[in-house]
Amino acid sequence: MKSSIQVACPTCRQKGVWFKGAFGPFCSKRCKWVDLGKWFEEEMLITENLRPDLFQGYGDLPPGIYLDDPGQDPYGQR
Ligand SMILES: [Zn+2]
Questions:
Q1: Which of 9, 23, 68, 73 is at 20 to 30 A from 38, Cα to Cα?
Q2: Separation of 28 CA from ligand 1 center, angstroms?
Q3: Cα 27 to middle of ligand 1, angstroms
Q4: Which pTM value belongs to this model?
Q5: How far is the centre of ligand 1, averaged over its atoms, from the C-alpha of 3 (Å)?
């Protein structure tokens, strides 16, 4: 049976039949939350805080400009 395969807990590397448990593939609720915390921490490290100066000039943009399209220069100065 697939669910009886032994796996190593991603957090503490302890081996067991974790997929059968409520927290699979983690061995415990604690290990599941530790892993989740790692992701949140990493996200905070790579995310720059939003500052008002990052949005300077956005109010002057003509409508219909896609701000997340790097190929589009709203001022045509490229
Ligand atoms: Zn664990």
A1: 68
A2: 6
A3: 4
A4: 0.49
A5: 17
